[in-house]
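To: structure desk
From: M.T.
Subject: fold request, one chain
Message: Could you run this one when you get a chance? Sequence is below, nothing fancy, just the single chain.
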Amino acid sequence: MTETDPVPSTEPHVLQGDEAVALWRKGRGFWNQWIDKNPTAEIDFSEVDFTGERDADGKLSFSNYRFGEGNVSFDHAIFGSGDVSFYKVAFVGRSVSFSGATFDEGKVSFDRARFGNGTVSFDYAKFGNSSVSFLGATFGVGEVLFIGTAFGHRGSSFRHANFGGGHVCFDNAIFGDARASFSHVTFGDGTVSFEETVFGDGGVDFSQTTFGKGDVSFIKATFGNGDCSFRGTKFGAGIVLFDEASFGAGEVSFQSSIFENLKFVPAVLGSVTLNGSRM
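Reply: Done. Structure tokens follow.
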């Protein structure tokens, strides 16, 4: 241990601001070792400006970093332009929050990230002109909140993500005009809500997705002019609501989907195929 290393403590430690950035700069090995010695530490990067912290290739990485049992906050952090990687990051604490965080142009990856059983919030985060990927990410039993999130204009993907049993909410989220994919996602038994969500003209894909026992709501959601696929989607025992949803010029398909209690009363309806029958 050097004199500049944060000192381990038997009490829960709050690692924040410049102190947190200084340890992160040392790299994954130093960071993970410190977390192992301070497993209950709370980590606070809120309002940190990372725009001047990129490597020689313009990238910023938390790839394979581990976070302990304490709360983690990146609230209102500024990531700037360039790629940002949280690939295989492990968040196991009580809560993880990126509320109000801003990303500009680049690729933002939370691929195969692991979130614990506390609340996960990306409320009102802004992904600018980025592509956003949560490919294969896993979430615990806590709430997962993307309320009012502005997703990037280069596409968004949650393919093969696994959500636990908590409430999942994308209410008022805005997706750009590139494709949004929720293909092969598994949702738990909590409610899933996309109320007043706006999907762009690049299309949206929920094909082969599995929903649990909770209600699923797309009330007042707006689907753009791209195709919308629910092919092979499996809905559970909960009510599936599309009340006052608006569909654009693209094809909407529920072909080979399975549902027990569908309430499909859209406000605007384009071309829809429901289990092989065109509506």
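Reply (cont.): The longest strand covers residues 106-109. Let me know if you need anything else for the meeting.
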